[in-house]
Amino acid sequence: MAREIRIETSFAEILPDFTVAVLEADITNKLVDMSLQRELNRTIGIVALSGGVDKIKDLETIASTREAYKRLGKDPNRYRPAAEQLRRRILKGLGLYTINQLVDIGNLVSLETGFSIGVFDADKVGQHILLRQGKAEDDFEGIGRGTLNVENLPLYVDENAPFATPTSDAEHTKVTLSTKRTLVFINSYLPKKEENMILLSEALDMLKELLVKHVEARNIEQWFVTS
């Protein structure tokens, strides 16, 4: 059965420019691939020379995500989008954790594009997914973060529980070395202009190429869902 992803009407009314690029594929995850590490290190070096922390907000993909948070009633300085978190770590000299190939690929595409990206074990995610505004009662354990307050964040929910925001993904759907199929979201809050859709498509193409090259992606499905 094909996976269904819907956007709640009230969310779309607040954020009519939202689009998510979705990719799902069978993969063979790995611990370390030196060629991928070289690509990641090269990008980290470029980011490190890109200016101070205060310049991160000038990147349009990140600025548009921060603005989306504000529209939903969430402070982006307290709950930073994942793409911003990655850049801040690099510019503060903290480096990035190397977890596994899938996580590294998501980080690389995010650093290259500024889009916040969710990478999941597809077998741990339900078939019916709804994107909506987070509620006070939503229970969410972020990866490495413990309980996360997701009220007013963009929140993906399946039949069982919330599992993703652009700030953090949930512990129960994270990828591991035993992951056999992955589901990836590239979240865009850029205005729906032709050039911005091209940027998102290029990010999706980059993701697909890296997945094929480094984790043997196959049986690939990809599509877009928009407000």
Descriptive overview:
A hairpin with a 4-residue loop joins strand 7 (154-157) and strand 8. The chain has six helices and ten strands, in the order βαβααααβββββββαβ. The longest helix has 22 residues, at 194-215. 40% of the residues are buried. The strands form three sheets. A four-stranded mixed β-sheet has the order 1-4-7-8. Strands 3-9-2-10 form a four-stranded antiparallel β-sheet. A two-stranded antiparallel sheet has the order 5-6. It is of the alpha+beta class. Helix 2 runs parallel beside helix 5 (101-113) and helix 5 packs antiparallel against helix 6. The chain has one domain: Phenylalanyl-tRNA Synthetase, Chain B, domain 3, CATH 3.50.40. It has helices spanning 9-14, 34-48, 60-72, 82-91, 101-113, 194-215, and strands at 4-7, 19-26, 116-121, 128-133, 141-142, 146-147, 154-157, 162-164, 181-188, 218-226. The two termini are 23 Å apart. It is 35% helix and 23% strand. Pfam families: B3_4. Residues 63-216 form the B3/B4 tRNA-binding domain. GO terms for molecular function: phenylalanine-tRNA ligase activity; RNA binding. This is B3/B4 tRNA-binding domain-containing protein.
Helical content band: 25-40%
User: Which spans of ≥5 residues are poorly predicted at pLDDT below 50?
Assistant: none
Q: Output the CATH topology.
A: Phenylalanyl-tRNA Synthetase, Chain B, domain 3
What is the CATH architecture assignment?
A: 3-Layer(bba) Sandwich
Nearest-angstrom radius of gyration? 16 Å
Q: Which CATH class? A: Alpha Beta
Our count of domains comes out at 1
User: Roughly how many Å apart are the termini?
Assistant: 23 Å
Q: Averaged pLDDT, please?
A: 96
Total number of helices:
6
Helical/strand content category: alpha+beta
